[in-house]
Design goal:
The chain is an alpha+beta fold. The protein has helices at residues 15-30, 47-57, 95-98, 102-107, 140-143, 178-184, 197-206, 210-222, and strands spanning 38-42, 62-65, 75-80, 121-123, 130-134, 144-146, 166-169, 172-175. A hairpin with a 6-residue loop joins β4 and β5 (130-134).
Length: 223
């Protein structure tokens, strides 16, 4: 799996980028030379890939972090010819501000998904946003339990198991629920309800932070 990941523009999914460029160029030539566009990619992308995209889009990217708009750290590059307000807001929300209470958690319809862990955990001395490590098997990132008084780490797709972000409540570790993922992405509560939890996690992990996109698009409304 590791071979398949982090391939940048050489990866299978990145073929869509070249289709995006092809379609955009067609629109410019045959329909609207001044068409507005928006393209996004992860903040951790390789410099060489960023340069390729910048050359193709003929514009420098804008780096925005969802932390300025939500309780989640999520740095992304945005290539756009939309005039974006550079006076970026400050958002002080942290995980504590968006999570459900234990009572609310137990009232959620979670199906067969195990929410609360019975396994032990160990607190760690960290200046970052990790509070403890859960005693489960697997990669280190699966064991991380996040501080509720910090921003959440970047949401990613969840293939099941223990891949969801975790916190401690009432002395026990639990997974963040889909509705909490929605709040971290500034999506309305239960917006993704109606499909399996796995699909909800995947959609939200793959998605944009709504408030960031609203910030980019707001100049279009003003125009």
């Amino acid at each position: 799996d590791r071979i398949k990941h982090n391939q940048g523009l050489e990866g299978e999914k990145s073929k869509l980028f070249y289709e995006y460029v092809r379609v955009l160029e067609w629109i410019k030539q045959h329909n609207n030379p001044n068409v507005n566009f928006l393209l996004e990619n992860v903040g951790s992308m390789r410099d060489e890939d960023k340069e390729i995209i910048t050359k193709a889009m003929e514009i420098e990217p804008l780096c925005l972090d969802s932390a300025n708009f939500s309780a989640q750290n999520r740095e992304r590059y945005y290539w756009t010819n939309i005039e974006v307000d550079k006076d970026i807001p400050i958002n002080t929300d942290v995980l504590e501000d968006i999570i459900l209470t234990p009572k609310e958690v137990n009232q959620q319809e979670t199906g067969r998904m195990k929410v609360w862990y019975d396994e032990d955990f160990e607190y760690i001395d960290s200046d970052g946003n990790v509070e403890a490590l859960l005693d489960i098997s697997g990669h280190d990132i699966l064991k991380r339990v996040y501080k509720k008084d910090h921003k959440c780490a970047t949401l990613t797709t969840c293939g099941g198991g223990n891949t969801q972000k975790k916190i401690i409540q009432e002395g026990r570790v639990r997974k963040l629920l889909p509705i909490e993922y929605e709040r971290l992405q500034t999506v309305p509560d239960n917006y993704t309800k109606g499909v399996s939890n796995t699909r909800r996690y995947n959609m939200l992990g793959n998605g944009w932070t709504v408030e960031v996109i609203k910030w980019i698009f707001k100049s279009l409304k003003e125009e």
